[in-house]
């Protein structure tokens, strides 16, 4: 039988995301997080919530998750997700993504300009 808690623990540890930070994001204590790791029947909703926080897709390891994941994606933002969107980590993530896209765009513009000069 698959021990869901152990799978989640392994993913969290491999992600480098700290247990303290995870506990804060979930609004729980560190002890609660360790209790989740010890639970072989960890609820799918909890697994998905942790997956969103650490940016990990558990659907390949836990097949039943994919149907729950599709359903949850359609739901509106709950209060915790809204707090996440407003958090500084998310702002930093989107800022970095924007800068990366801006660099790619500038590179394409430079290539286009070079091609025009050759013509």
TrEMBL record:
InterPro entries named among the record's database cross-references: Lambda_DNA-bd_dom_sf
Name of the protein: Uncharacterized protein
Species for this entry: Wandonia haliotis
């Amino acid at each position: 039988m698959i021990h869901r808690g152990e799978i989640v623990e392994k993913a969290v540890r491999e992600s480098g995301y700290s247990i303290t930070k995870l506990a804060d994001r979930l609004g729980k204590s560190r002890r609660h997080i360790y209790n989740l790791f010890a639970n072989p029947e960890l609820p799918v909703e909890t697994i998905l919530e942790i997956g969103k926080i650490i940016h990990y897709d558990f659907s390949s390891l836990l097949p039943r998750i994919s149907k729950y994941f599709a359903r949850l994606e359609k739901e509106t933002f709950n209060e915790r997700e809204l707090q996440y969107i407003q958090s500084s980590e998310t702002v930093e993530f989107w800022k970095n993504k924007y800068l990366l896209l801006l660099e790619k765009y500038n590179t394409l513009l430079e290539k286009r300009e070079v091609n025009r000069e050759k013509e």
